[in-house]
Amino acid sequence: MANETLVVLKRRELAEPWTLKTFLESGGYQGLRKALTEMTPEEVIKVVQDSGLRGRGGAGMGTGLKWSLIPKDSPKARYVVCNGDEGEPGAFHDRELMETDPHALIEGMLCAAYAIGAKHCFIYCRGEFILAHERLANAIAEAYEANYLGDNIMGTNFSCDMVLHRGAGAYICGEETALLESLEGYRGMPRPRPPFPVTEGLYASPTVVNNVQSLQAAAQVIQNGADWYKQWGTERSPGTLVCSVSGAVNDPRNVEVPLGTTVADVLELCGGVDDRGLKAFAPGGWSTPMLPPDKLDATMDYEGMVAAGSVLGASSIIAVPNDMCIVRAVWRGSKFYSHESCGKCTPCREGTYWVERILERIEAGHGHMADLDRLEKVNNGMSGFKSLCALAEFAAGPVGSSIIHFRDEYEEHIKLGACPMAAEKVSA
Amino acid sequence: MTDTRVLSEDFYTRAKQIAARYPVARSALIMLLHEAQDEIGYVSDDVIREVGSVLGLTPADVEGVATFYTMFKRKHPGKFLISVCTNMSCSINGADETVAALRDAVGSEHTTTEDGTCSWESVECLATCHWAVAAQVNYLDVPYLTPDRARKLVADLRAGRDLDEILADLRKAKSLSEARTTAERSGAANG
Fold first, then answer.
1. Which domains does chain B have, with CATH numbers?
2. pTM of the predicted model, to two decimals?
């Protein structure tokens, strides 16, 4: 059986890991010290690039590559923004990482700021995360007090400020350009790209937007080197990955494993599927195409998940049990996307609206066989990057994949004129 | 003008400090709406006007932003707002039954009990899926909100029991199955 490999979660069992005291006693701020005192910004970017660390927010872009794209000659201020607006259904690792190890996030952000020449960092923490917000606020105050933030950090020429910002309930703000709009005080609606945030991000200035886990991992890469990080994972997906595991499992929790670990092994670390049995699973949060149990040997890495017919996404496995009606589940998911669509782009606004209604009709027993073709047609209209951001693609994922793998369940609803599982419950 | 303000002097002092943290003051808008809502209980028309006045924004501009975000309430909820996640991992683990229990104990969604204490709402993923059915009371996390625990939560809040104590009790459960069995026992004991 696979073991956990704790890198970004390494402090989870320590006493009060969120305090500066515990953080320093367990090697904290050593990556930053090394960067500021022994390395040039270019060397910092290079080691992160050499490590192969890829963004853990969903898109999987190389973290070091992103840092390297900040224009060297821009006269504008540069910014580092941490995306702590975790809201993907099934994902809860960034919340745990911010709650347990806020100083590690500060350290990662400062390393990024040093690498790109930024003097301002912003943490966009999801509005509902009261504890994470409190721990981050305390950690930032401690860091200022101990000169890890502010002027001449650790006695060097490097100065940097950090602002903790709160969201207010909008899934779309996890999308980086919507997040930037929100951080500027507007409705969180995505921006057209190009320009990309690395050239015109916050206040139309060069901005790096990184995920919590990517930043925390980057600091350890800088401290320990690229080869150290590459001892785990696969050639194209090096390192470790925190997977959130929930749904029909016995011990739902976050586990950190090397990339390339099979879904079966990750589930095993969480006590296995519970006695309801596994009907399907979404590997990267609900927005990633679901897979049937015969794909349990698929690996949790960027390439492995694509090969299996899904994507790694937010590396958050939702185990769907046998007693869950797939149509009902996909319908519930579709309500989420139509609620969270910001309404800016027509394919997403209209597509999510109609998918929800068609699924509701099928689940209620009023569907027609033609609805299945209609769903696929609407799905095609939503996907293929026809909108400014990926929300419509996310909405399409569960619908399309469920029709591929569970078409018989849809047809049964339509033929029976009712949800067969609801009927079972009534007769039982 | 000052006499008709609903937000405290303290709010205005903090608002200026918060706005000063950002290179562009408008960035503080969401933070100030949070501060104001914490003070008044909801985002009233007065709040919109006064927050706008701090940042030099029109009421329409502020209202447009406030109504985009689900945490900002344009109507006063009860003293305690119970938010229950009905997204996937929570649906898999009984969110529909919890919602039914809340509807029974409190009334329909977004209404408030007659005594003004409790409202409830169904929300999207709270990122505590390991605690399914995940919930919050005034945004403070509650694990494993089974129907029995939901009914007891509402009764305790309406009885005026201290929120911290209630939360501490609810957080003792270490798994969904433990929460289910403990609630049954205490339900039997307390009627």
1. 2-66 (1.10.10), 80-190 (3.40.30.10)
2. 0.96
